[in-house]
Design a protein that fits this description.
Largest sheet: 2 strands, antiparallel
Number of strands: 2
Mean pLDDT: 76
Strand order of the largest sheet: 1-2
Radius of gyration: 21 Å
Helix content: 55-70%
Number of helices: 6
Distance between the termini: 34 Å
Number of domains: 1
Length: 211
């Protein structure tokens, strides 16, 4: 691996602007929601602080939340990685390429959010440790940056929760739509599995929900 690409985070960012199957770029509106809206919110709150708004105990409240989010996202990444391995080894699910890509995209998104959360926690720690970052002249810019990162984290967290549900839906579509399970057959182990055609259709429905 080249030294210039060893620590390249662009593949993680790419999962946020490309569909899970890599077939097409997301719309400008989707990209604006993930990146543009947080910047606008940060700028708005920063302007408000510049005009006299006072925020009390913001760092002490946000830092523990960021630390919890770091642990949760890395835990979710490990879980999805293990799930991806088990799906690849399963004779029932190994052929469902769309499902494997959904799980992979979810794992990458969790890792991305975990890294951004680490950065956010580090910035919060600096703000809490360096008084000049909370001074009257610098505070509006500090608050703007923190709000923008926090908003981005919130939007990404909602997207990741949605991805996790879509993965569950792709695996157990019959839980929400009993008609999907009609005609299911018994495997050797006695567990119910869907016919291959219905499994593929369930995954396609899950992909459409992500768009």
């Amino acid at each position: 691996m080249k030294a210039t690409t060893k620590y390249d985070l662009r593949p993680l960012v790419r999962v946020n602007v490309v569909d899970p199957d890599g077939s097409r770029l997301r719309t400008a509106g989707q990209v604006a929601l993930v990146y543009g809206l947080p910047v606008v919110l940060g700028a708005g709150i920063g302007l408000w602080v510049y005009l006299g708004l006072t925020i009390q105990n913001g760092v002490s409240v946000a830092l523990p939340s960021a630390a919890l989010l770091v642990g949760a996202m890395f835990g979710a990444f490990i879980f999805l990685t293990n799930l991806r391995i088990k799906l690849a080894e399963s004779p029932t699910y190994a052929f469902r390429v769309d499902l494997l890509r959904l799980v992979g995209a979810g794992a990458a998104a969790c890792l991305y959010l975990g890294i951004v959360s680490v950065v956010f926690a580090g910035v919060l720690a600096l703000v809490g440790s360096l008084p000049w970052l909370r001074s009257e002249n610098v505070a509006p810019y500090t608050v703007a940056a923190l709000v923008a990162i926090a908003a981005h984290l919130g939007i990404m967290l909602v997207m990741i929760v949605r991805r996790l549900f879509i993965v569950y839906l792709a695996l157990f579509a019959a839980d929400f739509n009993p008609s999907v399970g009609e005609g299911s057959r018994q495997s050797v182990s006695g567990k119910q599995t869907l016919p291959k055609g219905r499994l593929i259709e369930a995954t396609r429905r899950s992909r459409r929900l992500l768009r």
